[in-house]
């Protein structure tokens, strides 16, 4: 099976978009299988930068791009994104883009609830992207969601709207908000329906046919394993499963579909939003990493928190997601650091542990145990072959491999698509 699954192995923003775009020209299909427009994937091709949130990154190379049922879809955000990408010369139509008809919709009421909750939580907020992701997944699991396929049958939607509104009006009353307006929502859905319907289809069937034809499928994960609703730093997580296992349920293929699992790993660590971050640097070094790495969110423009490489969490992510090999990104950001630190374990209650515990208070209490290495003064920026890397940078990569117990399959040295060193071709496995 020549499929490849790309997932983030930290707290998101590892450079998944760049790597998916780099691999996309050799895939026949690119599929998103979870998350929504909370994702922000940046692709740099020559002088052009593309920022994708909902559209699979394969759209830029013209590769067939599909949104699986595991995604929560905001149709208005989708329309805006398509308009923006078309403005950049990307052609998007039913021939190269499809949406699973069993995808749940993110509605304006979800976005509103997301903001109301975050505002009410004050200091205890999750720091969500404010896109309505959590509330939309709650309604999916609560069996009250409106789905893409319902857009063709708005006249039969009343029983489902009864369930949805009963739930939300009660919640809204708690926030002193007026009840929802059914006629207004139906009108909004009526207007957007034709736009979405042109792309709607049973994606599982499309993928079954692609598999029969021997297609190479590239699955594009969003967020990262530490944001997974089960395995992440709960409750400071997103509301979907971000691990590789979600490929099967989120696209409608069997558990063998994932193929080569490529974990995307930043050469240091970042996080946006609240929650534990053992190696966070709230000093000049953290500022420097952020400045050199341009660590500002693609979606919300928030400043990302920065810290040293944490081998504990990446080792854990690789195990949980069955990672075959990693793509190490942003190595160039470490150019010029005199010394570099790697977190190899945590200290908790006087003991050394080699994993991140599940309990939130324990996660907040762990202290990193570091080892220090000499950095390199040469530049790695733009390197496209192993031979161009300084000896100390190679040593850093080898040490990471050892600590995370997973081999490096590629190294990325700039935002540009082709500034990538291939060590092991994931599609060849
Ligand atoms: P994603 O969410 O995982 O797709 O990552 P983002 O696009 O949100 O953030 C990664 C950022 O790093 C983007 O601005 C990329 O253009 C940039 N980037 C990706 N790989 C590299 C790299 O190897 N070096 C540098 N300097 N920037 C990179
Ligand atoms: P990509 O795909 C980084 C974070 C938010 C917040 C938490 C919950 O670009 O790597 P949500 O809106 O999902 O309910 O927010 O998850 N978050 C991300 N952080 N990269 C992302 O996506 C993220 N998507 C969500 O900042 O802490
Ligand atoms: Mg991102």
Structure in a nutshell:
This protein is an alpha/beta fold and 429 residues long.
Word description of this protein:
The chain is of the alpha/beta class and 429 residues long. It folds into three domains: 161 residues, Adenylosuccinate Synthetase, subunit A, domain 1 (Adenylosuccinate Synthetase, Chain A, domain 1, 3-Layer(aba) Sandwich), CATH 3.40.440.10; 89 residues, Adenylosuccinate Synthetase, subunit A, domain 2; 164 residues, Adenylosuccinate Synthetase, Chain A, domain 3 (Alpha-Beta Complex), CATH 3.90.170. The chain is built from twelve helices and 18 strands. The strands form four sheets. A ten-stranded mixed β-sheet has the order 7-6-5-2-8-1-9-13-17-18, sandwiched between helices. Strands 12, 14, 15 and 16 form a four-stranded mixed β-sheet that branches. It starts with a strand and ends in a 7-residue tail after the last strand. The mean pLDDT is 97. The chain binds guanosine-5'-diphosphate (GDP), 6-O-phosphoryl inosine monophosphate and magnesium ion (MG).
Low-confidence stretches: none
Indicate the CATH topology of the largest domain. Answer: Adenylosuccinate Synthetase, Chain A, domain 3
Structurally, the number of domains stands at 3
Beta-strand residue fraction: 15-25%
Binned, the helix content reads 25-40%
Assign the CATH class of the largest domain: Alpha Beta
Largest sheet: 10 strands, mixed
Q: Which CATH architecture of the largest domain? A: Alpha-Beta Complex
């Amino acid at each position: 099976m020549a499929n490849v699954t790309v997932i983030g192995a930290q707290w998101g923003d590892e450079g998944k978009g760049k790597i998916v775009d780099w691999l996309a020209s050799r895939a026949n299909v690119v599929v998103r299988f979870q998350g929504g427009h909370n994702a922000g994937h940046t692709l740099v091709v020559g002088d052009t930068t593309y920022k994708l949130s909902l559209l699979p990154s394969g759209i830029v190379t013209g590769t067939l791009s599909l949104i699986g049922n595991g995604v929560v879809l905001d149709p208005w955000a989708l329309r805006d994104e398509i308009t923006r990408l078309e403005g950049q010369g990307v052609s998007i139509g039913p021939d190269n883009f499809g949406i699973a008809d069993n995808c749940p919709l993110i509605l304006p009421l979800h976005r509103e609830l997301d903001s109301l909750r975050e505002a009410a939580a004050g200091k205890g907020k999750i720091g969500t992207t404010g896109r309505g992701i959590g509330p939309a997944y709650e309604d999916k699991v609560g069996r009250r969601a409106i789905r893409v396929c319902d857009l063709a049958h708005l006249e039969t939607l009343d029983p489902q709207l009864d369930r949805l509104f009963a739930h939300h009006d009660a919640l809204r009353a708690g926030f002193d908000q007026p009840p929802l307006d059914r006629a207004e929502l139906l009108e909004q859905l009526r207007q957007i329906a034709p736009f979405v319907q042109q792309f709607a289809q049973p994606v599982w069937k499309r993928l079954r046919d692609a598999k029969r034809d021997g297609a190479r499928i590239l699955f594009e994960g969003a967020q990262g394993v530490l944001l997974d609703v089960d395995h992440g730093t709960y409750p400071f997580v997103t509301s979907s499963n971000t691990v590789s296992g979600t490929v099967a349920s989120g696209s409608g293929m069997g558990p063998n579909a994932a193929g080569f699992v490529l974990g995307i790993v930043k050469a240091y660590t970042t996080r946006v939003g609240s929650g534990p971050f053992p190696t966070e640097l709230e000093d000049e070094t953290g500022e420097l990493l952020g400045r050199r790495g341009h660590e500002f969110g693609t979606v919300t423009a928030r400043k990302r928190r920065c810290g040293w490489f944490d081998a504990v969490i990446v080792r854990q992510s690789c195990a949980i997601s069955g990672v075959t090999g990693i793509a190490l990104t942003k190595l160039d950001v470490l150019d010029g650091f005199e010394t570099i630190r790697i977190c190899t374990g945590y200290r908790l209650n006087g003991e050394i542990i080699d994993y991140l515990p599940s309990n939130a208070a324990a996660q907040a209490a762990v202290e990193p145990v570091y080892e220090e290495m000499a950095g390199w003064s040469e530049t790695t920026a733009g390197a496209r072959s192993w031979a161009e890397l300084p000896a100390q940078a190679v040593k850093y990569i080898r040490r990471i491999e050892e600590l995370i117990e997973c081999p490096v399959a590629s190294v990325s040295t700039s935002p540009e698509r082709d500034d990538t060193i291939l060590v092991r071709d994931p599609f060849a496995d």
